[in-house]
Design brief:
Radius of gyration: 18 Å
Structural class: alpha+beta
Shape: globular
Number of domains: 2
Strand content: 15-25%
C-alpha cells in the first residue's frame, strides 16, 4: 500500500513520538522532576494510559515506576500496582499508589498539594493564593498560605 506524502509524514511523527515516550520511561529513573516536566509532551495522560493497560500490568517502584500525568497536569510515578478498572480515580485521589514529582521550574509550578507521601524538596515550586512559591526546606508538606516561613515567593 502506497502512503501519500501527508500520511508518510504523520506516520513518521507518530513513530518518533512513541519512540521518545518509550525512551523517556526507560530514562525516567535518572531524571529529576524538573527534567520530567520539561519532557511532559512525551509523558502519557493517566486516563489514556489506564484505558490502554491496567495499572496491575505496569511497572511500579519508588525510582523506576511507570510515569504518567494526571488530568491536573501533575507528573506521577506508580509506586504500587492496583486494579485501575476497580479504582479509576485520578492519582490525586490515590496517593498511596502514586508518587508525585515536583519541578524547580517556576513556569511548571502547579497548585500546592499536601501529601506526606510526596513532600516538596528544597527548591521545588508550587502555586498558591495566586502566587508562585519555592520551598525553602526538604520534606515540605506545609502550605505556603498557612506556613509561609517554609516558602519564598518567586517573583514573576
Amino acid at each position: 500500500m502506497m502512503l501519500t506524502e501527508k500520511e508518510f509524514v504523520l506516520d513518521t511523527l507518530r513513530r518518533a513520538g512513541k519512540s521518545a515516550a518509550v525512551n523517556l520511561q526507560a530514562e525516567s529513573p535518572s531524571m529529576t522532576g524538573t527534567e520530567l516536566y520539561a519532557a511532559e509532551e512525551y509523558i502519557p495522560d493517566f486516563q489514556a494510559a489506564r484505558a490502554a493497560k491496567n495499572m496491575l500490568e505496569r511497572k511500579a517502584g519508588q525510582k523506576d515506576g511507570f510515569i504518567c500525568r494526571s488530568t491536573a497536569g501533575r507528573v506521577v510515578r506508580l509506586l504500587q500496582v492496583y486494579d485501575s478498572e476497580i479504582y479509576p480515580q485520578e492519582p490525586e485521589d490515590l496517593p498511596a499508589q502514586w508518587g508525585f514529582v515536583w519541578s524547580t521550574d517556576p513556569d511548571k509550578a502547579l497548585p500546592f498539594l499536601s501529601l506526606s507521601t510526596s513532600p516538596y524538596a528544597k527548591g521545588d515550586c508550587c502555586t498558591a493564593d495566586g502566587k508562585t512559591w519555592r520551598s525553602k526546606i526538604d520534606t515540605n508538606t506545609w502550605s505556603p498560605e498557612t506556613s509561609p516561613e517554609f516558602w519564598e515567593e518567586v517573583e514573576p
